[in-house]
Write a structure and sequence with these properties.
Layout: E1 2-5, H1 14-21, E2 24-26, E3 44-46, E4 52-55, H2 58-67, E5 74-80, H3 89-103, E6 115-119, E7 126-132, H4 149-164, H5 185-203, H6 210-219, E8 223-227, E9 231-235, E10 242-246, H7 259-267, H8 282-303, H9 309-317, H10 324-327, H11 401-434
Antiparallel strand pairs: 1-5, 2-3, 4-6, 5-7, 6-7, 8-9, 9-10
Helix pairs in contact: 1-2, 3-4, 4-8
Length: 439
Amino acid sequence: MLIKFFRNGKGAGAGPVGYLVADNVLAYDDNRDLIRDADSQPMTVTRQPLPEVLRGNPDRTEALIDASRHQWTYRAGVISFAAEDTPTDEPQAEVIDHFERLAFAGLDPEQYEVLWVRHTHEDRVELHFCTPRLELTSGRSLNIAPPGYEKAFDSLRDVMNQRHGWADPMELERTQEVRDTIETPTRARGRDELHMWLQDQISVGLITDRASMLDALVDAGFDIPRAGKAYLTAQDPDTGERWRLKGEIFHEDWQADTAEREVERRAGHDPAGLRRLDGIPARELQGRFEQHCDHRAAYNRERYPQLSATEQELADDLALADHGDILGGDRLDDGRELALDVDAGELGTDGLGPDADQQGGRDLAGAGPDHDAPEDLHAGRQISDLHQDRGGLDDDTPDSLGTRLARLRRAVGDGLRGLSKGIERVRGTLDDEDVEPDG
């Protein structure tokens, strides 16, 4: 079992959430190159079995990502199991529980949102997660994978792999120099010849790191259209044939190994036949995990202090924005919206139709068009759904989410102060009547 966080995390929620729950997706070959039809149009495939939502609500997760005013709006990744592991539902739930315990240490469930979707269409179990980078009671950014996060989640990986005997991605036999790829015989021969040539260059010391490998490939007449952190793409300029090269030696930080490391690799595993995790006491692995949980909990409690009951209730009422039927809102018993930005005396007195002081019956007062234009809404959403603008607290952009929130908060404060003054006036009147002789 391994845990991987994806590098992306900006933009609307439709992208990450849609990918997790979609039945049909773009088709890629084993080199992760897009498969195209005869007209060079991208092809799609249907996932079989279809994705399964295990926890969370896709609509709510997408809405919260869209409501974020931060530059980075979400975190996504996957917990992937080897094909031979085949974990049942109970240990999968255990892994999810431990992941959330670490990722959201020190936080209550109402302070965060996370969506879990299971994929099994690639003949192995993959538990995909997506969480808005948002602490829900304060609106502050919540990053569950800050710099240096690898050690924390490695501790979770090691605890689970040792406990259940799952495949350990750090075992020597799984750290291959060259990753095998399934492809046509012609392409396979070309790839094998390229691999053997590179190994020969390494063995005689002509290639010692990533930079010298790139130089050797270019000198041999290959083009390098892509060079990722963990792969290279080599292209034959004469035929246009391309190979995606994956494995340990193609990582950007790779360097030629010492003779001792070469002996270990040729053996393929520890001479005693022990797994890496077999030599570490379970108590020690659990202690590492608990230490990371405690450290993160202390940080989260300091950054996101708990609100009082009154503050929490107000925060719930004003949470981010009105999400309609998805997140629920404050509604009157007769279905009309509750207006918070005016005094009660300024509302219509007939009790029917839109409020007299509102523009076109909108919930919030202020300048702006009477009807939202389609271009102002998230692509593919209904007119009643969440507004996409992520502007800051800026009155120069009257339609921005930040401005609407600020206005709403000011209105609530004014309304509470007005209510308090009214109560004092009533109390003063009653006190005066009490002192009357005939009172």
